[in-house]
Amino acid sequence: MQTKIILPEDKIPTQWYNIIPDLPGPLHPVISPRTGQPVTPEEMLAIFPPALLEQEMSNQRWIDIPEPIREIYKLWRPSPLFRAHRLEKALGTPAKIFYKYEGGSPAGSHKPNSAIPQAYYNKAHGIKRLATETGAGQWGSSLALACSMFNLECTIYMVKVSYFQKPYRKSMMQLWGATVHPSPSPLTNAGRSILALDPENNGSLGIAISEAVEDAATHNDTNYALGSVLNHVCLHQTVIGQEAKEQMKMVGEYPDVVIACCGGGSNFAGIAFPFLADRANGANVRCLAVEPASCPTLTKGIYAFDYGDNAKMAPIAKMYTLGHDFMPPGIHAGGLRYHGESPLVSQLYEAGQIEARSLMQTACFEGAMLFSKSEGIIPAPESSHAVRAAIDEALLAKEEGKEKTILFCLSGHGFMDMTAYDSYLSGDLEDYEYPAELVQASLANLPKVSV
């Protein structure tokens, strides 16, 4: 019984897969917050290099990966695919469970798959510094790593509650040379305005994005980098699914369901989009996005145009959203805190091409604990959502007495997230379902868009 399915380095994908040509209908325009009209390339070039902007708007199905990026990918790619024999036995399920493990990257997650290209293209464009936001710290540590590899400065606005809950993520960023500020901070107009209203504000990704975008827009040598949501970020992550397809083929398997946690959408896109290309060509495969009940963007949000950030500086996109001023509760320990969803993932969900499920955090941590005892890897709290959903699918197969092949993305390890596990083990972790009335209150502030 094979446990690890390994691809050689020469099988690292040579191209990224762009799902835009295979979407059910045209992609909605992105709107300028300044003019209310479709955003112009000139506006986007204020914070992004031309190569990334071209990828963001491309209708080309396959985009070549530059060789210097593939050389760095070799540090952790191809990532292993595991057959979870011990978890299957613990569950007593007839299902076959496979997981694609992205925790072997230097930063411990899938995020460097996009951080490396973003740093590469910015460096080639003559940019000296990148500014970004981070929540739990996976993206911030990945961009810090990428900037260190390309000799770029890096400034990170880290959501304040995570800045203090996850100090070792901050240490990783600083070790790779980044400057890290708790957000909201007194360093930007966006941060100062939030602190004036609430000096104890815990922060949100929407606020941190506002600070990072403002930083980039007000410094000529600085660009902005985003770790999820945008088309080019989802594009870069498709190396995950491409490798997984080859690895499943090596053992003569194909998934009935593909599962990933979903916050802004990059991890889900990474593993699911290559399989959705198969679905567009007739394959019978389900793709399930799993989110926390305390930040239920797909399952409780609405499909509407909304700002990408709290201060209304980022472009307006049509996406599933909880409202740009959404504030996740402080007791929420599982990551996946963004108010909106990737426009690509949103359009696929609206068209019924993918499924979504929200889960309570204690059930996710319970699943992560069983997975740790069975497979030996401690999942990142974000990844625990995919673990839980995979367990639930396997138990359903057991109940129905049916064979099923399950593939999920273990998007990173939890070695830097032990504070959350401490809370779970001590019984201090509470379940929290974001109230519908708070969702409605936040959605009342959506922008008016006429296109």
Kindly describe this structure.
This protein has a 7-stranded mixed sheet with strand order 1-4-5-15-10-11-14, with helices on both faces. The protein has a 4-stranded parallel sheet with strand order 8-7-6-9, sandwiched between helices. The protein starts with a strand and ends in an 8-residue tail after the last helix. The protein folds into 2 domains: 78-108 and 237-443, Rossmann fold; 112-226, 3-Layer(aba) Sandwich (Rossmann fold), CATH 3.40.50. The protein is built from 19 helices and 15 strands. It is 41% helix and 16% strand. The chain has helices spanning 41-44, 50-57, 67-73, 85-91, 112-124, 138-149, 160-165, 167-175, 189-197, 205-217, 231-237, 239-250, 266-280, 297-300, 343-350, 361-375, 383-400, 418-425, 436-443, and strands at 4-5, 15-17, 62-64, 81-83, 96-101, 129-134, 153-159, 179-183, 222-224, 257-261, 286-292, 302-307, 316-321, 355-359, 405-410. With 451 residues, it is of the alpha/beta class.
